[in-house]
Amino acid sequence: MPHRPEPWYRASKNAWYVQLDGSQIRLAKGNKDETEKAAWDAFYRLMGSDLKELPPKDKLRTSELCSLFLDFSEKHHAADTFENYRHFLRSFVKSFGDKLAAELKPLHVTRWLDAHPAWKGGRRHAILAVKRAYSWAEKQGLLSLNPLKGVEQEAGGRRDRVLTREEQAEIIANIRDEPFRQFVRVMFETGARPGEVARVTAAEVNLDLGVWVFARHKTAKKTKRPRIVYLPPAIVELCRELIAKHPEGPIFRGPRGQRPFKRNNIRCRFRRLRAKLPHLKHFVAYTARHTFATQALQNNVGIAQVAELLGHTSTEMVSKVYGHLADQIGHLRAAAAKAAS
Fold first, then answer.
1. For position 49, what pLDDT does the model report?
2. Is 158 inside a domain boundary?
3. Are 323 and 180 found together in one domain?
4. Is residue 155 part of a domain?
5. Is 41 domain-assigned?
6. C-beta separation of 184 from 177 below 8 A
7. What are phi and psi of 206, to 5 degrees?
């Protein structure tokens, strides 16, 4: 019988349990695969709320540290940020949840990453989740020293994939259900992040101005102002229809109209699309945002305006990622004008 502070499944009882202080606490009942997420959610809530007395720094386990951080993250971070942290920290707890937090080494993180070769570009986000949790714990006085401070953050890959109008149309045409077709179409036409489309509610939509306004968003601490997503007329009308169906909660929902789109659900959908359209090469959900920015520059929209449309804090990111394209277009436009004259 497991004694580690993490969920485990008992087939005879058809339920998930966790053992704490000698007692077995049931977290969720039902099919193992179908209730695993609910069990881990209950586990995080339990670990975050039931630690009335914090364990000494030399007794704090990795599972407890991650649970406390996720409890904080759920209250203070955007929903998609919290979901991202939870996704990776859940895996980290499965590997090292029973180990003392202060005794972990960068090598543990390396071995954890190597055990998940399919993550590829996700490795950077995995490292960030663990480093954020441990850095937070040190600042909160839960650790004397952060043993993972030396873990190096991997550089993010540059998104060079740009979809043509024809490729965008082919992707949308190969989506089986209308709700996800709408979801992808909105990403292509607004440049909004997948997480922004997934979480927008009726309260955040201003139909008269044709915008979404997010008070809580990814760069709120830097910009000190709301994130505004500007909507083309057709998307305004789509939002009007969806608000009528879903006046409360996220307006973009799955085929049954009950559940909003989640990060992993979106990722799996795009994986199936890539398998269905192998001739289009590699593309992910964020390719829509990159394509939107590239098309804007190709249509002679200024860098400052593109930065505003994307919700960046300054033009630095746009200049870094797309500046070469803007320079090339300007040069070729001048050459074309010269040739024509």
1. 53
2. no
3. yes
4. no
5. yes
6. no
7. -110, 100
152 in a structural domain: no
The residue with greater pLDDT, 99 or 6, is 99
Does 170 share its domain with 40?
no
CA distance linking residue 218 with residue 234, whole number of Å: 26
pLDDT (mean) for 170-176: 95
**Which H or E run contains 16?**
strand 15-20
Helix or strand (DSSP H, E) at 71: helix 62-76
Range of the domain at 71: 8-139
Whether residue 104 contacts residue 96, with contact meaning beta carbons closer than 8 Å, is answered with: yes
Contacts of 217-220 spanning 24+ positions with Cβ under 8 A:
217/78, 217/311, 218/78, 218/81, 218/193, 218/311, 219/311, 219/312, 219/313
0.70 cut: is pTM over it? no
Q: Domain check: are 122 and 12 in the same one?
A: yes
Comparing 16-20, 221-225, 315-319, 328-332, which segment has the lowest mean pLDDT?
328-332
pLDDT tens figures, 44-68: 666 655 555 666 778 889 988 998 8
